[in-house]
Write a structure and sequence with these properties.
Structural class: mainly beta
Order of helices and strands: EEEEEEEHEEEEE
Radius of gyration: 16 Å
Number of helices: 1
Helix content: under 10%
Distance between the termini: 17 Å
Number of strands: 12
């Protein structure tokens, strides 16, 4: 498990813990997020609705030297929002029929852990065909850049956790200059 241990915006510091694991099979990108937090607050949303308002985990990724990137966002119920573009305000949403090819397995623990917090995780299996704006024959050996996030925009305790730190004045995950390097070996 790789921790999301950066909280770039001090005013939103929280005691929430989150981490992820990542792998690939050549044809599929496999990501599992783990979260431990004080509350579950989510809605069943349609595809491409604002899942970031809920208990949400996100993966932003670009391949090779692309300036544009994919943002894949999932709430704790497994609802998804997926888009592509080169900045926050210039995104193209992928179609719901394409997003339906992502296999999503959410799991919310029904009991509180020893710290009286709720644990949940989500396994996401993304076929390479989701990356429709990028020519990918196999993920094997490909390079990329990306970042992993945990957020909850509509909580009493708003929170923003990241794998790679972001240095901006206000919360904004759409900062590709802070992406870390990824190599699929």
């Amino acid at each position: 498990k790789i921790p999301l241990n950066h909280q770039p915006w001090e005013e939103f510091a929280s005691n929430i813990k989150s981490s992820f694991s990542i792998a690939h099979s050549g044809d599929f990108l496999i990501v599992k997020f783990y979260s431990e937090e004080n509350e579950i607050c989510a809605s069943v949303r349609k595809t491409n609705e604002e899942v970031s308002k809920d208990n949400c985990v996100e993966l932003f990724i670009s391949f090779d030297d692309e300036q544009s990137y994919y943002n894949l966002e999932f709430n704790c119920f497994g609802n998804a929002k997926v888009a592509y573009g080169n900045q926050r305000n210039e995104r193209t949403l992928l179609t719901p029929s394409l997003i339906d090819n992502i296999k999503i397995y959410p799991n919310i623990e029904s009991k509180l852990n020893k710290y009286q917090r709720i644990e949940w995780n989500i396994l996401i299996i993304i076929p390479k065909e989701i990356f429709i704006f990028t020519s990918i024959k196999t993920l094997e050996g490909i390079r990329g850049r990306g970042n992993f996030y945990k957020c909850g925009d509509n909580f009493k305790q708003r929170h923003f956790l990241t794998w790679n730190n972001i240095i901006t004045e206000t919360p904004d995950f759409h900062q590709s200059k802070f992406f870390g390097d990824l190599t699929f070996i």
